[in-house]
Each structure stands twice: as structure tokens, then as C-alpha cells.
Amino acid sequence: MDKKTVLVMSGGLDSTTLLYKLLQEGKQVQAISFNYGQRHSKDLDIAKKTCDKLNVPHKVIDISFIKELISKSSLTSDDIAVPDGHYSHETMKITVVPNRNMIMASIAIGYAVNLDYDEVALGVHAGDHTIYPDCRPEFIEALRKIAAISNFKPIEIYTPFLNISKTDVVTLGNMLGVDYSLSWTCYKGLEKPCGKCGSCTERAESFDLNKLIDPLLCV
Q1: CATH fold of 4-217
Q2: 154, 113 in Cβ contact below 8 A?
Q3: What is the DSSP secondary-structure string of 171-193?
Q4: Counting CB atoms within 10 angstroms of each CB, which of 41, 109, 117, 127 has the fewest?
Q5: pLDDT of 10 above 70
Q6: pTM of the entire structure?
């Protein structure tokens, strides 16, 4: 029997690719996105457009009330500038949102239990490991253990990109025919990608190494 999956859908490149992969695997998908008080909502709008295009049910969960509790990040505070540069730079630590993946995964697990679904899918990848503790293999392994025992129904945690780079994700997405014009990566939420923040830098690198043109730069 095909698995039923709750996908945490950010609207970014990784979760968008993962959605296409889940559908290619024949899984039934319910996508959820989170308004946690981030700097902009462009990613949420993009996530909806992708789900509408692929006929995937999509919910936006409003947890913006927690913003004041997780405000020491450039992604949740207007008073902290988003740094430019590569993810490997020490300055990128200011983009870490405290416990974000744990918060979102916990809600997604509860939703999966409520729906009688089998798993929660997260688009974390190896490029996130340096800066983001809640994207590392040890975090995912601990999350799997929690998801297996925290409810009467065990929920699996599906992270197929955990040990591959964003370049590899784009390679896969190109094979799957992912529409990357319906994805948003930039942290700054401007009309067009800034091309300088860590997320934009890594995205550009991934397209370049695949010898592909980023459709967002053609608009």
C-alpha cells in the first residue's frame, strides 16, 4: 500500500523537489506550511502555487504568535540584518531560528497521527549541516525515535536528502521536471532574489554546478 505523507513545505527549493519526489513515488501527500513570523510570506505564496499546480492539499498553519519567543534570528527580527555570504561563513549563524524544525516537525507529527498517515517528510539536506543543528543527522535520528514512541501510532520521518548536497537535489529535481520558477529561496523577500544572502548563494552554486539556468533569474 502506498504511504500517506505529511510534507513540511517551505516553498523553497528542497521541499519543492521533495514534493515532486513523493508524488513520483506514488505517495498520497498533504502539505503544510508555517507562518512563524518570518520576514516575508513569499515562500508561503509560492508553496500554495506549487501545491495548486500539482493538485496537492495544502494548509498554512499560523504559529506567528511564537515570534517573540524566537526573535533572536535575522529571519524573525526586522532589527537584525540578513547577512550576505556563503552558508559556511560564521556570520550565517544569525539566520538560525531557535528550534524551528523541532517545532514544525512536532506539529506535523501530530497532524499525521490525526490523519492516520504514515510519515512526515522533511527536505533537510547535507548543505544545512554546518550552520543548522536541527538539520543534522543526529537531530533527525533523535526525531525518528521520538516520532516512533510519542503516540499510539508510530510515525516515520522521511528525509531522503539528508546526506546529499543542494546541488544533488537540483540534479534530481531536473530529472523529475520540477518547476523551479515556483520556488523561493531568498531570505530577504524582495521583489526579486537578492543573489547575496547565504540561501541565494547556495542556490546559485547548485544551478551553476548542474549547468542549468535558474528560472527566477530569467523573470
Answers
A1: Rossmann fold (3.40.50)
A2: no
A3: HHHHHHT--GGG----SS--SS-
A4: 41
A5: yes
A6: 0.91
